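Review form for a predicted model. The reviewer records the input and the model, then writes brief findings.
Reviewer: anonymous (R2)
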Amino acid sequence: MNKIWLIIRREFLFRVRKRSFLVMTILGPLLFGALIVAPALLSNIQTDTRTILVHDKAMILDFEEGNEDIRFVYIDPNRYSLEESKAMVLEKGEYYALLYVPTGESWDPDFIAAGIAMYSKNDISLKVQAFVESLIKSKIQEEKLKLLGVDPAVVQQSTTQVRVRTFYLEEATQKERQSSTEVKFVLAFISSLLIYLFIFLYGSMVMRGIIEEKASRIVELIITSVKPFQLMMGKIIGVAVTGLLQFLIWVVLSFGIYVLTSQLIFREKFDAARVLAAQRAELDREGSALPMDIDRSIEIIQAIENINFPVVLSLFLFYFLFGYLVYGALFAIVGSTVDNETDTQQMVLPISVPLILAILSMTAVVENPDSNLAVVLSYIPLTSPVIMMARIPFGVPWWQIGLSMVFLVGFFVLAAWVAGRIYRVGILRYGKKYNLREVIKWFSYKV
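Model under review:
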């Protein structure tokens, strides 16, 4: 055991002293935080107002002014032709685009809608296109209602927006808590993708380390002092400790970034949401409601606050650790069977297929976390680390989590034993490419 500890210590110190480890440990949370904060900051930046020249022959827009980002400028369709309007957009830099609305002899709204077009010197942004389409759709709908003898104002008054708030009931306390499928969806995808990336990142570290020692023949000297199995487990656990340290530092730094941004950047929004949440409770008792957009922001913030992050983080650490240990043993087999990294492709592919299958199944699992597919993949050790982290935010019975853990730990013991028997033969073989059948034969060799 003392020899394994020495190997673990060597692997750990060798990797944490690398400059790349320090850089990624610091930059990882910063980049992740930037991905979260940047869109929010960019959304608050005021963009220049875009002026759109309108050639409305049907007069269907009724001189609509636009909004704070888009301004409409109308020209006389009887005075200017479509070609002249296009020329104005090309010659004058003040116009972002030309909106052309045709007309017909029978003034058919469907005919008008089919002929509407926009012209611009550059590609028209999706935001502008969506606004114009929404505006014209509402205007044409109004005209259709008028042709049918229906007052558009009456239809507008009868239209109601509906958003069903979702809650989950705690069995122990029978209390209700705000939930949000979107928030859980994002958490599930982030957790699963991190597990996937970490397993490949640290598993490949084990493989490369074995290949380097094998190529330099250092391993021949090392195994004179330790058993091959001790060497393999020392390398796998050493990289695991390195990964855990890096991940824990990321958690601490990410939490610090979260606290900092929530206080400096999003403090007003969080405080306002909590005040509005109290107001909504009062309005619910009175039979009233908050505006839809405000109600939605409260729902998201409350759903985030109701997530049991200590439980999610603890389960993430377990599935990361044992998922890595399982694949670390498999990557150790690959490293022991080749002399350089270029020969690893055909061996890495078979052990990568289950992880890739898990990633491809994530959408189906998240949409239906209790399906037979999701439950079965949660029990298979090669897919359970990714699939379980996709299910946990939505709630998984503890007996299923426990059974999945038992299968994963048991498979790790089996994988380590099999890997050790192959590793002891492979690290001393050089100069030949081995296929899967030959590698399997090594399992029964006596050394």
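Findings: The mean pLDDT is 78.
Further findings: Residues 228-264 form the longest helix (37 residues).
Recommendation: see findings above.
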